[in-house]
Write a structure and sequence with these properties.
The structure is a single chain. By secondary structure, the protein is of the alpha/beta class. It is built from 5 helices and 4 strands; from the N terminus they run ββαβαααβα. The chain starts with a strand and ends with a helix.
């Protein structure tokens, strides 16, 4: 079964086609009211560790290594990953992030991980 995963900035308005909206950042995004985020769930536990997030610093030259390290953290985080897989089994899930870089962020890395590892 292929997952239907979308990724977008939490600052973009919610759309009917978003499905379940899941914020996958450890820190709440600045300037976003909880009601405006229209979240199904805020999954802090699936976000990269503070140490990894600070090391990465959204520097594109660290992207490949960030994805590998984050994948290792996700491998050790069965409960949170399984919770996401359960949501995905019900239809589209939009992973939301607050970073400015739309190509190099934890939500993109997480979507890639879930597509490569549909089952534990």
């Amino acid at each position: 079964m292929a997952f239907d995963i979308a990724v977008k900035r939490v600052y973009e308005p919610a759309q009917p086609g978003d499905g379940q909206r899941v914020l996958v950042d450890r820190i709440w995004p600045r300037g976003v009211a909880k009601k405006d985020a229209a979240l199904t769930l805020w999954m802090k536990d699936v976000a990269p560790s503070d140490e990894l997030r600070k090391w990465f610093g959204h520097e594109p030259e660290r992207w490949t290594q960030f994805q590998e390290r984050y994948g290792g953290e996700l491998d050790a985080n069965d409960e949170a990953v399984e919770q996401l897989r359960a949501l995905l089994s019900k239809g589209r899930v939009t992973l939301l992030f607050g970073a400015h870089d739309e190509a190099h962020n934890n939500a993109v890395a997480l979507a890639g991980y879930l597509l490569r590892h549909p089952r534990a």
